[in-house]
Design a protein that fits this description.
- The chain is mostly helical and 82 residues long.
- The chain has a domain at 25-72.
- Helices cover 28% and strands 0% of the residues.
- The termini are far apart.
């Protein structure tokens, strides 16, 4: 996601930051919050953990945890059972 012009002012929210790579922490966090209602793991504790970790992001290259539902995986093989 790129939000910044040359003057380090976010094109979306107008906030000034000195982040590199054209990334705005405020906008990224707001995007996460808006998307919270669009997904669920089915487990409130897991959802809460993922949301908490998403809101702790500080840099564009931080690791982001997200829920991927089982039906989005292909070629699933069960291990340990014969």
């Amino acid at each position: 996601m790129s939000y910044y012009e040359d003057d380090n002012e976010c094109k979306r929210c107008g906030e000034h930051n000195d982040y590199q790579w054209g990334w705005c922490k405020s906008c990224q966090i707001n995007d996460f919050k808006k998307n919270f209602t669009n997904w669920t793991s089915g487990n409130e504790k897991i959802d809460s953990l993922i949301q908490k970790k998403q809101l702790e992001i500080n840099k564009s290259f931080d690791i982001i945890i997200e829920w991927i539902s089982y039906d989005q995986f292909d070629d699933i093989k069960e291990l340990g059972k014969e």
